[in-house]
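Hi everyone, sorry if this is the wrong subforum. Our group has a chain we'd like a structural model of before ordering constructs, and none of us has done structure prediction before. Sequence below.
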Amino acid sequence: MPVVLPESAIWCAVCSVARGLAHVHALGYVHLDIKPDNIFVNAHGVIKIGDFGQALEAGSNADGAEGDSIYMAGELLDARSADSAAQPPADVFSIGCLALECATAVCSAPAALAMPTPFELAAGGERWTALRQGALPRLTAAADAPGTAADAHPGAGWTYNRSAKLARLVSMSMMATPCDRPTSAELASMCAEELCIPPSPHLDVHAEPISIDRYLQAADSPDEQATHGSAEGGDDDAKIPTATDGGRNFKLSRRPSLRVIINKRIISARATNSSCVQEAAVNFAS
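Answer:
Right subforum, don't worry. Here is the predicted structure as tokens:
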């Protein structure tokens, strides 16, 4: 299957974001706008959390929260809920949405082939509500894994071929009840264990940073490494349009976002491996 991000890179991204949020939460604040566009990657592949414009002190009234509804926890928009105040579990839900989007980013095939397409996170409506009630797409073929294949592509019977561990991480992070979600520190610890990285004691902000480039390049062939390059990109990369973003051009800066990296790799996969759809169709048929 032509997935865009290797699973180890997703674990790395979630680990880095969760580490940063654990520090933010320990200081008594909630970010409230975690999404790929606000997760930046420096020239060394180290992930940084940006855009604290929506941040509030934990416990503050979140009524009228203006973060991106696509990644927003349901309780923040339910004035009747006792959990409607800004609390750390809302950020954890957003991490789950981010991980889900990364896990389902694929070099899509025509719908007629019944192959996976990127799972579209809704901004509202029934699909938005259903996702916050546990209707997740099936990420793995494991029998005990969360998710329903019909939610992603009725009758197709395929999955995104991710591990059961990643599927559970997404499911746990996006639990409907805030108190059922892991804390950001627990999430960071889970990811560090999966990546065989020593845990960061006492949320030490000076802990050794981890580079997503290491995991992206390890999974690429030499040709793909040359095409994708590092997270920083270059002059030519700045002219690459996004695969989504409503048709607008999104230029790579010297601190590209995770969104730009995903879109860049989708476009690169389509441009450098024109046979990906045919190969995927053959693999699916067999």
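For your construct planning: Residues 149-157, 226-254, 275-286 have pLDDT under 50 and may be disordered. The chain has one domain: 7-220.
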